[in-house]
Design brief:
Elements lengths: L4 E3 L2 E3 L4 H13 L8 H13 L3 E4 L5 E6 L5 E7 L10 E3 L2 E3 L7 H13 L5 E7 L8 H9 L5 E5 L6 E6 L1 E10 L12 H16 L12 E9 L3 E10 L5 H11 L4 E8 L2 E2 L5 H12 L5 E5 L4 H6 L6 E4 L13 E3 H21 L12
Parallel strand pairs: 5-8, 5-9, 9-17, 10-16
Antiparallel strand pairs: 1-2, 3-4, 4-8, 6-7, 7-18, 10-15, 11-13, 11-14, 12-13
Helix pairs in contact: 1-3, 3-9, 5-6, 7-9
């Protein structure tokens, strides 16, 4: 554990377990569904300043805190403020903290805030709570790309379980299909708008092939998010989770060529990303997990995160890590074991200590990122 910092002439001790638990509990008590994260952002900025950060809220609504302790490397730790909608009453019960975002992803973000403050890192640490990660456009992460220089390494805060590191995520292609037809009697053999929307979904599945599904990292998987319409107008919202190397533009071109009318409207497309087990961030996290008394695990996820967004431009060491069971993402009983949360804080603290001197001079490419 590092010695206390001097801030405004007074010593600030590293966060205690009690402080870490209180921080998470207070964050859970502030509702922050996507597009309504401001209250949590300003609260967290204040708590970060109490811990010695230079912290504030940027133009996108992200909370950004910096700790500068010498001329070493810059490491960014980025989690997200927003949650899906739905209330989960905040309470402590059976050694667990309950609340919306307890897993996805306030616990990983709170752990990052505490770990950075507690670490002996000699360099520059930037801790970000991003807005709108749960939305198609990831506006918070996009603003970070546009407004911050490329760091030397990146840790994304998402639930992996304290013993496990996430090496990569599938990409995502979101689009609308919209179609209009002339009014006609239901018995007319001419194609109706609602039928064309249903046919679009059928063609999506045919194009992706019989092996497509959400269970495998190396295969695409499609979801019909919504379909509405009648005889004259219809719309279908489709989301495709994509593997490494998937050509989203070619897929949309092929799909449009199969459709008898209507238009495709791209919402957003982000490529899949994956790093290797020898990545310096992965190595530092694995070493910290071993120091915590466990054998580290590794996995890839078939969902997406802000790692996808940042990996498209930042070709640097990176990985995703955070306490919490991702099976409870968005669940009505979303909760985290307190001991797991505190273990995650300690792993991140130890990993940052290693990254202080363990980063290479070169920046390896991220496999599969565009």
């Amino acid at each position: 554990m590092r010695s206390p910092d001097m801030v405004n002439g007074s010593q600030i001790p590293p966060p205690s377990d009690a402080l870490a638990i209180d921080l998470l509990r207070q964050m859970l008590a502030i509702a922050s569904p996507s597009y309504d994260e401001a209250a949590l952002a300003h609260y967290l900025a204040g708590r970060m300043r109490e811990l010695g950060y230079a912290a504030g809220v940027d133009q996108a609504g992200n909370v950004v805190g910096e700790l500068v302790r010498g001329g070493g490397p810059t490491v960014m730790l980025l989690g997200h403020l927003d949650t899906v909608t739905g209330e989960v009453p905040v309470r402590e019960e059976g050694g667990r903290l309950y609340g919306r975002g307890a897993v996805d992803a306030k616990a990983p973000l709170a752990a990052m805030v505490c770990a950075a403050a507690a670490s002996a890192f000699t360099g520059r640490l930037v801790v970000v709570g991003a807005v709108e990660e749960e939305t198609p456009l990831s506006r918070g992460a996009m603003h970070i790309l546009a407004s911050h220089p490329t760091p030397d390494a990146l840790i994304i805060g998402e639930p992996s379980g304290w013993r496990t590191v996430v090496l990569g995520y599938k990409g995502k292609l979101d689009f609308w299909y919209r179609v209009e037809c002339e009014a006609t009697h239901p018995s007319n053999p001419a194609a109706k708008a609602s039928e064309l929307a249903a046919e679009c979904w059928s063609q999506v599945r045919q194009l992706l092939g019989p092996e497509a599904g959400h269970a495998r990292f190396d295969q695409p998987g499609a979801t019909l998010v919504s379909i509405t319409g009648d005889l004259t107008t219809a719309a279908a919202n489709v989301s495709v989770r994509t593997p490494l190397g998937f050509d989203a533009a070619a897929f949309l071109t092929d799909l449009q060529g199969r459709l008898a009318g209507g238009t495709l409207e791209l919402i957003n497309s982000v490529g899949a990303c994956r790093v290797g087990r020898n990545d310096p961030v992965v190595h530092a996290l694995n070493r910290a997990i071993r120091q915590g008394g466990s054998s580290p695990g590794a996995k890839v996820k078939t969902a997406t995160s802000d790692m996808n967004t940042l990996a498209e431009q930042w070709k640097i060491p990176m990985a995703t890590y955070g306490p919490g069971d991702s099976a409870l993402d968005h669940a009505d009983d979303e909760s985290i074991e307190i001991v797991e949360y505190l273990a995650g804080v300690r792993v991140l603290t130890l990993a940052l200590n290693e990254l202080s001197t363990g980063l290479p001079g070169r920046r390896p490419a991220i496999v599969g990122a565009r």
